[in-house]
Amino acid sequence: MLSADSVPGNATAPVAPVPAPATAARLATVGSSPVREILALTARPEVISFAGGLPAPELFDVEGIRAAYDRVLTEHPRSALQYSTTEGDPELRTAVAARLTARGLPTEADDLLVTTGSQQALTLLTTALVEPGDVVLVEDPCYLAALQTFGFAGARVVPVPTDDDGIVPEALEEIAAREKPTLLYVVPTFQNPTGRTLPAERRHAVAEAAARHGFWIVEDDPYGELRYDGEHMPSIASDPVAADRTVLLGSFSKVMAPGLRLGHLRAPAGLRRACVIAKQAADLHTSTIDQAAAARYLRDSDLDAHLAVIRAAYQERRDAMLGGLPGALPEGSRWNRPEGGMFIWVTLPTGHDATALLETAIGHEVAYVPGAPFFCGEPDARSMRLSFTTHAAEEIREGLRRLAKSFA
Questions:
Q1: 212 has pLDDT over 90
Q2: Exposed, middle or buried, 45 (CB in 10 Å: 0-12/13-18/19+)?
């Protein structure tokens, strides 16, 4: 007896597989981070890397953080391991609000949303505010991951020129009038990548421009508590002219530990609620136990005393780098002297290309980040970003001696 499959005409033909759908078209316009790629290239322990904007791991308060986790898991294990509210741990938000208030920005716990790092805060804001084709203004050069975030949203990113004091108010005024932007993204204190700090009068000019032209200000402040010299600068969010249109982003990555992935967003109520909804779709809420441990750490430990230790170490490292640059770089090079943060911005003399030079530098077992990828507008091939936080002073001096060989 013949089976159905053996009858002529009934045999099942091989199925020609149809290709699965391609990745979203927006991926074609957003590249990977050059900084991350350089970090992968320089992972060898013999390389002294000035490339990553990484906190010094030997300065993490491991014992204090471990004790905070132990107490949370001993005293409140069930709630610490359970789902939680999207807005964030009330005790942590209260502690963050108190710290912001002490720095001159009156804040209540309900003004805040806890996020999975401040990078997520920027993503939530972009989701809530930016439609494809909307104009987003950025400093030029700009923090790379911000450019990626706006690129994924389909924004039209427009650079605003900067000088040694940061964003140029006259240029911002002219571009904002012409482009009708949705938001301006700015890191006004110890900016990444340049280390520059926006003076008080320029902060006020940014606030006035936002009020006059009707755009949001996204003020990213991951480095503000890492000041080594000079006077504290008030946040743009504290300017009454901008209070109803400024979102402040903060992070525990640089002051406690980046592995916690804890950030926060301070925004007017309507926009904050929109970000809460966006976060519910992204991850429901930030890690319950990590929030609880951070809150407990802030209650039981003295973060300000720990920050004093971090600042003293970083200031020594910054000074070691500044002291070694004249002997490491070719004549005619320029660099700034940041009052805090993690970065020094270098401009080599005309005719030098920092990207082309990087391979030579890695051959001498030292690394940095070329400045060109940070530009949204015309890149400056001569520029480079040097981070001074990860290595002790003597390692920095040795790294600069190796860098000097790259110009020989």
A1: yes
A2: exposed
